[in-house]
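WARN retry 2 of 3 for item q-0093 after timeout on previous attempt; input resubmitted unchanged.
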Amino acid sequence: METDVLFIHPGDHKKTYQDLSKEFTAVATPAWTLLLADYTRRKGYTTAIYDVNVEGWDENEANRLLSNYNPGLVVLMVYGHNPSASTQTMPAAGRIAADIKRYNRDVPIAMGGTHPSALPERTIMEEDVDYVIQGEGAYTVEGLLRCMKGKGDIKNVKGLWYRGAGGASFTSPAELINNPDEELENYAWDLLPDIRNYRAHNMHCFQDFEKSGKDDFSDVRTPYVAMNTSLGCPYSCSYCCINAVFGKPGIRYWSLERVMSWIDTLVNRYGVRNIRLDDELFLLSPARIERFCDLITERGYDLNFWVYGRVDTIRESLLKKLKKAGVNWICLGIESANEKVRQDVNKNIRRDVKHTVQMIQSHDIYVLGNYMFGLPEDNMDTMRETLEQAMDLNCEFVNFYTVMAFPGSGLYETACGNKWGLPESWGGFSQHGYDTQPLPTKYLPAGDVLKFRDEAFYKYYSNPEYQGMIGNKFGGRVKRHIEKMLDIKIRRRLIEPVTIK
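OK item q-0093 returned
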């Protein structure tokens, strides 16, 4: 079998999430890889996908893949569950590239994604790859494939880094995709081995745990799809790296007719119920949201959506329609309770957070609150303030993050310029990894921030008020699941204890 392009989605769930990977994390469909795979085959190239997070990887897998697919080009798209997860995936991506080259150095490898787009020159010089794709990648991959067929000059492929005689060379920036409907027409779900291998995050299905017939609730968490209905983000928070791929803030939409065609396929062909819409700000355009809800409701589908929004983009007039359409979870980036801390990273919230959370919950929609510990202006008092806010809001689930200066973010440039402490390896950017090393603040070392986060996580989820709320809303099985989650011990390399009082 000869394949023009083999897309590999890299990852290492065990190393990234430690023992949480067994039951508590999601295994998400590789959205960007699926879009590019469909694009290339529509251009007439034979295309395949290998998802390491589902099918695994060892030193023998490279030989098997090369033998089975005989690819003319291997493309590693380095993404994760969210934009910031690209950097933590780099160790796995680098290992895969090196394994392939050990078996056959003649197989050309290109690496793209958020991290490679943010640090293309460093990536091409440090990793065992032939090319780095800077930007969205569709036009660049197509240009590379033309060259593989002898129909073009590599120097004319836009968005491409390669090794030249004098070191790293860059062609020219690639244009952004102006019409997603026509140019990124579909997701290549059919190229995945089995969509039932993908599972939703535990909290995404809390409302279904009581009707599950399995101890790990896998029967209600699968099948599962993560996908986008838009590209980019119009905001420019300095800690976020989402626009490293797109080059600048902005947002482009697929038409709702196109989005509905995807959902029709997912429901009717694959039996998918659990869907995470990965748009950085799905809840942004009221007219679009209202029409989306109407189209879903008209179809009568029983879906379980998780979507993202900002505190100041939530409109009460739409919440009833969102719930009727199956939006059961809204994720809010609350980040910090302290206004000075937020403003320092260009995160302005112009609405009362508690009122917004309660407004959402009053419509029987659950809230996933995202919080950050260790922003540059954070000290022990402001981090305690954020934890107190989280416990007061008592959201149905929270993510507590330590601040990382991810490549592609404004914070990364500031950290490099000021020589703030950054992880020595890309694995140190993983939130749940052993080597996790958050950014120090102006007042606290990294170890104090990490210890505070880990203790805050335990304090939040073991809080009797949270335990009571979660049991009342979702039942005893979810409450026991949370208790089981608290028994998972995450090992950390940094040991600088701090006590929460």
